[in-house]
Design brief:
With 270 residues, the protein is an alpha/beta fold. 38% of the residues lie in helices and 13% in strands. It has 8 helices and 8 strands. An 8-stranded mixed β-sheet has the order 1-2-8-7-3-6-4-5, with helices on both faces. Helix 3 crosses helix 4. The longest helix is centred in the N-terminal third of the chain and has 21 residues.
């Protein structure tokens, strides 16, 4: 695959991995990386918002906007490494992508990587479907929205909504942690993805994400500092088919994430 993610449309990302090309950020981007990145991302978001309001937020538009997020991160000096792309399209049937959740980039960046291979929609917190700017965009994606207040109700929502979308050939992105975290604790990584995969009879593709280059904010959690000195790592594993009760598969997913994070940042997993 070409190393020019910044200039190639996402549907051309067909190799096994991607690594950002070496480039120097402009003086302005070097001095003000957050301001530079967010100003570019705002333009991307506003364009997609208008398309969504007009009923034109297609999969292609969503994918290109997601690609734009990576482009603006690279322009301020962030290095991005993506591995295991061959696993995304390794199965014919719809599947469930299960990964750790570290930053806002997880939700905004994955469409550029996954959608070229298969239709996909995320499980999201319901607030993202009501926020003024993101609501039209997110709702156009037919996401599975959960409240994160009643675990039993959320479980039912994911199981029923997930099965309905999987039956339509739409894969699901699930972050089983209750909230974003810079560390990975298997004890707080619930098995909702494994349970849905077992219920629907579809495979799981594990994801390991190190995306703390996009930090968490204070007043606005989604808009934290952009730190170009931190490398973005995204890795996909081979499909996992659930047998039995799913405990072994849950352990394999956790081991995949934990091992990847330890490789990228020793001590990040615990």
């Amino acid at each position: 695959m070409s190393n020019e993610l910044c200039t190639l449309p996402s549907h051309m990302l067909r190799g096994t991995e991607y690594h950002s090309p070496a480039r120097e950020a402009s003086v302005f981007s070097s001095c003000f990386p957050s301001l530079s990145a967010y100003s570019g991302m705002l333009f991307v978001a506003l364009k997609l918002y208008v398309q969504a309001r007009l009923g034109r937020c297609s999969d292609l538009a969503w994918m290109r906007a997601s690609e734009g997020i990576f482009r603006h991160l690279e322009r301020v000096g962030c290095r991005i490494h993506i591995e295991g792309l061959e696993h995304i399209g390794a199965t014919r049937e719809a599947c469930i992508f299960v990964g750790n959740h570290m930053s806002t980039l997880d939700a905004f960046g994955l469409p550029a990587i996954i959608r070229p291979f298969r239709p996909v929609t995320p499980v999201v917190k319901r607030s993202l479907t009501t926020m003024p700017l993101f609501a039209p965009i997110m709702n156009s994606r037919d996401p599975i929205a959960v409240d994160r207040e009643n675990p039993r109700a959320d479980f039912t929502t994911v199981m029923e909504g997930g099965l309905e979308r999987l039956n339509r050939g739409i894969s699901i992105i699930v972050f089983p942690q209750s909230t974003r975290s810079l560390t990975f604790d298997p004890r707080k990584f619930n098995s909702i993805g494994v349970k849905l995969a077992k219920h629907a009879g579809v495979p799981i593709i594990p994801m390991a994400l190190k995306t703390d280059a996009w930090g968490q904010g204070g007043a606005v959690k989604d808009l934290g500092p952009i730190r170009p000195e931190k490398t973005v790592h995204i890795r996909f594993g081979a499909p996992i088919h659930v047998r039995g009760q799913g405990k072994e598969e849950q352990a394999r997913i956790c081991d995949f994430i934990q091992g990847s994070l330890e490789e990228w940042t020793p001590g990040a997993a615990r």
